[in-house]
Design brief:
Layout (H helix, E strand, L loop, with lengths): L1 E6 L4 E4 L2 E2 L4 H11 L3 E5 H6 L10 E5 L6 E7 L2 E8 L2 H8 L14 E3 L3 H7 L5 E7 L8 E2 L9 E6 L3 E3 L2 E10 L1
Parallel strand pairs: 1-8, 1-9, 4-5, 4-8, 5-7
Antiparallel strand pairs: 2-3, 2-10, 6-7, 9-13, 11-13, 12-13
This protein binds NADP nicotinamide-adenine-dinucleotide phosphate.
NADP nicotinamide-adenine-dinucleotide phosphate (NAP) binds next to strand 1, strand 2, strand 3, strand 4 and helix 2.
Length: 179
């Protein structure tokens, strides 16, 4: 399972329920990394999606204690997509260990933890890979952060993309794996 996020120099990820940066080319990267797979997110991040709805072309699993728990299957163009609401992390993890019979991809690397802060923090111990879009900027007044993992010797950089400049911001994509 991987975590995917856009972070600033201080690992800030959000403010007032929204993302910090508008980077259309990075959205394309996010799409390529997650399309066809499973995305896991917190209720607040789901609410920040367009229309507060799950992104198309992914199985979406949400952690929430306020939403109705359950599993729903939607069919679109002959493909089945899951939408699940889980009330705690062990319940979600049990579910992910049971791919048989569920229309989930068999490849566990195609499960992406997509935020926000509460969910990254709780699910980082289950992740073997981080895919971070690292923006060379310091956002002001951010109120959500990716957990501080850089002092943890367990993580090493496995690849580093070239710098990309867009909307006056420069970022590069780094992938990390657990040693
Ligand atoms: N930069 C990025 O890549 C990125 C990615 C994603 C999000 N973000 C940003 O992150 C911010 C949101 O982060 P956040 O930490 O405030 O919210 P969040 O993690 O998206 O969602 C928090 C909610 O998840 C539910 N939850 C948390 N732990 C749970 C558990 N153990 N069991 C069941 N439900 C649980 C609760 O929902 P209920 O209240 O319904 O119980 C909680 O209120 C926004 O600014 C967003 O834009 C940034």
């Amino acid at each position: 399972m991987k975590a995917i996020a856009v972070v600033d120099k201080n690992l800030a990820i959000g403010k007032d329920g929204a993302l910090l940066f508008r980077l259309p080319s990075d959205l394309a990267h996010f799409k390529a990394e997650t399309l066809g797979g499973v995305v896991i997110m917190g209720r607040k991040t789901l609410e920040s999606m367009p229309g507060g709805k799950p992104l198309p072309g992914r199985h979406t699993l949400v952690l929430s204690r306020s939403m109705e728990p359950g599993l729903w299957v939607r069919e679109k163009k002959g493909k089945k997509w899951l939408f699940g609401v889980f009330t705690d992390v062990p319940e979600l993890m049990d579910f992910l260990d049971l791919p048989q019979g569920a229309p989930l991809p068999a490849d566990p690397r195609n499960i992406a933890v997509c935020g926000g802060e509460q969910i990254y923090t709780q699910l980082l111990p289950y992740c073997s890979e981080l895919v971070l879009t690292e923006v060379d900027a310091e956002a002001e007044d951010a109120d959500a952060h990716f957990p501080e993992f850089r002092n943890d010797a367990a993580w090493r950089v496995t690849s580093e993309g070239r710098p990309v400049t867009e909307n006056g911001l420069t970022y590069r994509i780094r992938r990390y794996a657990r040693k």
